[in-house]
Write a structure and sequence with these properties.
The chain is an alpha+beta fold. The protein is built from eight helices and seven strands, in the order E-H-E-E-H-E-H-H-H-H-H-E-E-E-H. The protein has a single domain, classed as Glutaredoxin (3-Layer(aba) Sandwich), CATH 3.40.30.10. The strands form two sheets. Strands 2-7-6-3-4 form a five-stranded mixed sheet, sandwiched between helices. Helix 2 packs antiparallel against helix 4, helix 3 runs antiparallel to helix 4 and helix 3 packs across helix 7. The protein is globular and about 50 Å long. The two termini are about 25 Å apart.
Length: about 230
């Protein structure tokens, strides 16, 4: 599932439950995922340096109910990644003022060291409690109730550091032509586009497979050989 620009403009915020599959069903891990159905190679992959970690980028928004559903799963998944894989989350704005506020909220929580504690709480506040966190004033009122100093938070919220992170995230979203969330990019080379009917778990299975594919492509790329 993904929230597109059209979904955003139409105001579709209803969450969709994950499909219930038979207990015996399992994906054959020795079989490749299908290009064009499950994943796609990016036309202009990012160059990588020798020894550089495989980077997995999740593009998301606190305003996206599908991102809220994925978040607990991908957070637990990221904690089990091997040392040669780097995970980053990048909030998108789609050029909307409301989602720009949410992106600033994410980066401010990160810089204030409160992201781990309050990350899922933001999703819950917006999706379950139906709180309006789309203005700076509303954000400051909310973080104060979470035990943070609103004055210090406001200063960071409007800081150069947060502004820089926001611009970098927007540039990455443009670079990878992100038009729906959640979106996962692996190593600047591959995009996850399917889930094989398994919802977010399937999406992460494909991501695992693409990490392996990206890792295996590194030697040829770094020695000047043909890339996969």
């Amino acid at each position: 599932m993904a929230m597109t620009r059209r979904d955003f403009h139409a105001g579709l915020v209803a969450s969709l439950g994950l499909a219930v599959l038979p207990q015996a069903w399992a994906w054959p891990w020795d079989e490749d995922w299908v290009e064009g159905r499950d994943w796609e190679a990016l036309p202009d992959p990012e160059p990588t340096a020798p020894g550089q970690a495989v980077r997995v980028s999740e593009f998301f928004s606190y305003g996206c109910p599908h991102c809220a559903d994925l978040n607990p799963l991908i957070t637990a998944w990221a904690k089990e990644l091997p040392a040669d894989v780097e995970f980053q989350r990048l909030p998108v704005t789609f050029g909307r003022a409301a989602w720009t506020i949410l992106a600033r909220l994410y980066f401010t929580l990160e810089l204030e060291g409160a992201l781990e504690r309050l990350d899922q709480a933001v999703f819950h506040a917006i999706g379950e409690q139906r709180l309006n966190l789309y203005t700076e004033r509303a954000v400051l009122d909310w973080v104060a109730k979470q035990g943070l100093n609103p004055e210090a938070f406001q200063k960071q919220f409007n800081s150069v550091a947060v502004g820089t992170k926001l611009r970098q995230a927007q540039a990455s979203a443009k670079r990878f032509q992100i038009n729906a969330v959640p979106s996962i990019i692996v190593d600047g080379r591959y995009r996850v586009i399917g889930d094989a009917g398994r919802g977010h778990e399937g999406r992460l299975d494909i991501t695992d497979w693409l990490i392996k594919k990206a890792r295996e492509a590194r030697p040829a790329q770094e020695t000047g050989g043909a890339s996969t």
